Automatic annotation (TrEMBL):
<dbReference type="Pfam" id="PF02649">
    <property type="entry name" value="GCHY-1"/>
</dbReference>
<feature type="site" description="May be catalytically important">
    <location>
        <position position="155"/>
    </location>
</feature>
<keyword id="KW-0378">Hydrolase</keyword>
<dbReference type="InterPro" id="IPR003801">
    <property type="entry name" value="GTP_cyclohydrolase_FolE2/MptA"/>
</dbReference>
<comment type="similarity">
    <text>Belongs to the GTP cyclohydrolase IV family.</text>
</comment>
<protein>
    <recommendedName>
        <fullName>GTP cyclohydrolase FolE2</fullName>
        <ecNumber>3.5.4.16</ecNumber>
    </recommendedName>
</protein>
<comment type="pathway">
    <text>Cofactor biosynthesis; 7,8-dihydroneopterin triphosphate biosynthesis; 7,8-dihydroneopterin triphosphate from GTP: step 1/1.</text>
</comment>
<dbReference type="GO" id="GO:0046654">
    <property type="term" value="P:tetrahydrofolate biosynthetic process"/>
</dbReference>
<dbReference type="InterPro" id="IPR022838">
    <property type="entry name" value="GTP_cyclohydrolase_FolE2"/>
</dbReference>
<comment type="function">
    <text>Converts GTP to 7,8-dihydroneopterin triphosphate.</text>
</comment>
<dbReference type="GO" id="GO:0003934">
    <property type="term" value="F:GTP cyclohydrolase I activity"/>
</dbReference>
Length: 308
């Protein structure tokens, strides 16, 4: 049906003869089937897909070929094998353009159900922004995933200053008494122990790891679980008072500067290849944030993983 329709990408030469590193599309809305659960989970994603254009005399690539390949691929569960095949097909579909490289980026949110800390049967949903970057060149797949985890951080310095104020107030209240009964001390603490409180804030850890092309899945949930376990204070979903109290205890037992958080996550990711970490504490004391990076190519973990 296209025999009589003009195709200037084939019949015309570019005004400027120069190769291009990447050409393609960005921000394509697609459904994805995540193979991270017992039953695949469908999510809304945005995709960027491109190939290189090494021949200076070739005016343009075939965008529709890339779109159709992507549309066919997303009907199946997302795995490294699927990504490798999609990118290899993208290069093959542009043999007439002499393309040798292809790349894909996916942005989406993984939705996981998280149990309350203590209350049996209580749970809620938590969203984790994700990026997947894949590139195919010379028969080899390079694959990276990035995830974003929100947690709570309580400042160790603020906690120490708070404890000093409580100590001073306790000493002043019971001044002149050589002995204080357990009941009197308990009553004072029940009323006055929070006369000063350390500052805490919602915080964000962004991690980026390299995955082997032979992996069965992207391993997103195990990666998220590893980071949350290292930080110990991931934000909660559904809570009752007992869960809120347990969360307060976790914060008190895991005081951390931004440096502490970055080191915890860095250590927890020792089994992953090329792990990069960025942590950001959205300060409640200051109008600016505290940040720390660790690992190779840390700039890749700087931007939020999802812009959906």
């Amino acid at each position: 049906m296209n025999i009589s329709l003009p195709d200037v990408s084939l019949t015309e030469c570019p005004a400027v003869l120069a190769p291009l590193d990447w050409v393609g599309m960005q921000g394509i809305d697609v459904p994805l089937w995540l193979a991270e659960f017992e039953a695949p989970q469908q999510v809304h994603a945005q995709a960027d897909i491109q190939v290189d254009l090494p021949q200076p005399h070739t005016k343009g690539i075939h965008m529709s070929r890339l779109y159709r390949l992507l549309d066919e691929a997303v009907q199946q569960p997302l795995t490294p094998t699927l990504l490798a095949q999609l990118l290899a097909d993208a290069i093959h579909s542009h043999a007439d353009c002499h393309s040798r490289r292809a790349r894909l980026q996916l942005r989406f949110a993984l939705l996981a159900r998280r149990a309350a800390l203590l209350t049996p049967g209580l749970a809620g949903w938590k969203s984790y922004p994700v990026q997947v970057r894949a590139q195919w060149q010379d028969g080899h797949l390079s694959l990276h995933t990035s995830v974003e985890i929100v947690y709570s951080s309580t400042c160790p310095c603020s906690a120490a200053l708070t404890r000093q104020l409580v100590e001073q107030a306790f000493t002043a209240h019971f001044a002149g008494q050589e002995q204080v009964s357990r009941s009197d001390a308990a009553a004072w603490l029940r009323q006055q122990a929070t006369l000063a409180t350390p500052h805490s804030q919602r915080s964000v850890a962004r991690v980026r790891v390299s995955l082997p092309a032979t992996a069965a899945t992207l391993g997103l949930l195990p990666l998220i679980d590893t980071v949350e376990a290292a930080l110990a204070t991931p934000v909660q979903t559904a809570v009752k008072r007992a869960d809120e109290q347990a969360f307060a205890r976790l914060n008190g037992q895991n005081l951390m500067f931004v440096e502490d958080a970055a080191r915890r996550v860095q250590q927890a990711l020792h089994e992953y290849q090329d792990a990069s970490v960025q942590v950001q504490h959205l300060e409640s004391l200051h109008p600016h944030d505290a940040v720390a990076w660790a690992g190779p190519d840390h700039t890749q973990a700087t931007a939020p993983a999802s812009h959906l």
